[in-house]
Structures are given as C-alpha cells and as structure tokens.
Amino acid sequence: MSIRSLPKAELHLHLEGAAPPAFIAGLAREKNIDIGGIFDAQGRYAYRNFVDFLRVYEAACTTLTSPRDFYRLTRAVLEESAAHGVIYSECFLSPDFCGGGDLAAWREYLAAIREAAEEARANDGIVLRGVVTCIRHFGPEQSRRIAHCAAETAGDWLTGFGMGGDEGQYSASDFTWAFDAAREAGLRLTSHAGEWGGPESVRETLDHLRVERVGHGVRAHEDPDLLHRIADEGVMLEVCPGSNVALGLYPDLAHHPIDRLREAGVAVSVSTDDPPFFHTDMTAEYEGLCRHRGWSEDDIAATTRAALDAAFCPDDIRQSLIRKLEPET
Ligand SMILES: O=c1[nH]cnc2c1ncn2[C@@H]1O[C@H](CO)[C@@H](O)[C@H]1O
C-alpha cells in the first residue's frame, strides 16, 4: 500500500500557514494589497530564518480579510489534507487574524470555517476540530482577549486552546491567565515550547500552563529528567520533523531526535506545521521517516493511533476514527 493512501491524523497544523502561496498571491491581486517580497522567483514563500518566517507568515495573513476568505482557505486546506489520507485534522485558529480579537467578528469567522469543515466532511470524510491559538510575541494582554474569544466559543467543535509564535519573547508564566481561563471553559490545552527554547522552556510551559500536549517539544530530549517527566505524565509531543529541518533546527532527518523521544517512552505524533512554507505534506513526512529513519507501516499506524488517542475531539468521534484504522475483514 502506498504511504499516501494510509489513514493519517494530524494534530499540529496552522490554518493560515497551510495557505498555498498561489492562494495568498491571488487574494493580494484581487484586493490590491501590497504584501511585499514574500515569494521567491518560483512563487514559493521566501524567508531567511524563524523570525523572518514569522514576518512572512503575518504579511501573508494581511490578505485574509473576511470570513469568506477563511471559508475558501479551509476548503482548500482540507481538500489537500484529505488527498494525503488525513482522516482527522486539528487546526490552530487565530482570532488575531480573524477580526483582531474582537469576539463578534471572531464568531463570524469561526462560523465560516465550520461551514467549510462540514462540507469537507461530507465530500471527503475528513474530520476537523479547532484549537484557538494566541500568539506569544503579541503579548500577554492580547492573549487574554484571544482566550476570551476561545472561552466564549468553546464546545464540541472548538475544543482546544494553545499558543504559538516566538518562543524567545516573554516567559510561559506570563500567559497563565489565558490558559487558566481556557481550562475553566473546558478547553484542552497545548502550547508550543522546546522548539527554539531549550528544556527549561518546556518545563516552564508544563508547570505554568499545565498543558497536556506540547507543540514541537523536541528539545526536551536534551534533558533526561524532563524526558522521564513527559513520559510519566503522558504529555504528547506534536512533532513536526519537516518543519524542524526546513527552519534549520536540525540539519536533516538523520539528526532529528524523534526516535530518541519514542525510545524514552514519550507519546509523539507527526504533523506538517505549515506545509507550503516547509515544502512538505503528510505523505512526505512519513516517506522521509521511512527512508531516513527506517520507519515501517507499523510505525505509521502506531503514530496515527497515538495522535487519535491524544486528539482534542469528543470520544464518539475518536472511536469512529479508530475503527477506520482497523484493516477491513
Ligand atoms: O513552527 C512554528 N513555530 C512557532 N510558531 C509558529 C510556527 N508556525 C506558525 N507559528 C505561529 O502560529 C501563528 C498562527 O497560529 C503564527 O502567527 C505564528 O506566529
């Protein structure tokens, strides 16, 4: 069986970060928005390093100005994911790019995203759930507004809250209010850490934000005590190998710690993060792990199952997705 057609689950995907460059360029043209030189000669996103990547990401987002844009984006992203065998996806959604943190505007954007998700489910069978994400370098004050948007729209579709952005800014403890508010609203929690920050950043995130999953978290492998803790507490790491290599965190897959994490008993999932930025997709992620790390179809199945076990979705949906992994008799 080809890797492309194997069933997959993805827990770490930024919705705007999955926008194809041609989609963003088209919107910029339609609306006459100057997004500056964010593409290379081949029309791909061009950035020099992680901080520059964040700038390009935000410039691309200036073209997404209406709920209709997010409807179209969600349809395009889910169609692409389904083509790579993804049966379940969780997307990071940013009220910051959907009305700037205004609750009434956020509700309209969310309705458009959900409408697209329902159509994708009917057409391709792919299931989507949303995780509202605040952006670390936008600061703790703004994170409160974003948590408020999340809490007010929490339910069995908007199921999680998290944080992405520049890990070099602020400390995790500055965001405690936002994560507490989200937890009280019944949202499940994840935060980026241990990508550009070391093990101490992961530890702070666990201590102060009390998350059950960590976005990336790969640098936890540098600290054996922390690895034990993560394994003991059953914290899942949302690992994005292609992203880590594209951004220069590791020179190549051979140097990536994913297998060391697994050997330490840590639950890991595999995701693309921002696929067109990193020239990847779910098929390419697993093909790379098979080619360069000796992964087999069993490893892919086990990782997919681990992702579904840690998914922020209602249990009846989890069970129906798990049944899809079983070979047909
Ligand atoms: O790989 C990543 N590491 C850290 N932050 C990221 C990454 N990709 C995207 N974002 C952050 O997530 C926000 C939208 O959800 C983006 O604005 C960016 O700040």
From TrEMBL:
Keywords: Hydrolase, Metal-binding, Zinc. Its cofactor is Zn(2+). Coiled coil: none annotated. One of its GO terms (biological process) is purine ribonucleoside monophosphate biosynthetic process. Pfam families: A_deaminase. The keyword Transport does not apply. Signal peptide: none annotated. GO terms for molecular function: deaminase activity; hydrolase activity, acting on carbon-nitrogen (but not peptide) bonds, in cyclic amidines; metal ion binding. Belongs to the metallo-dependent hydrolases superfamily. Adenosine and AMP deaminases family. This is Adenosine deaminase.
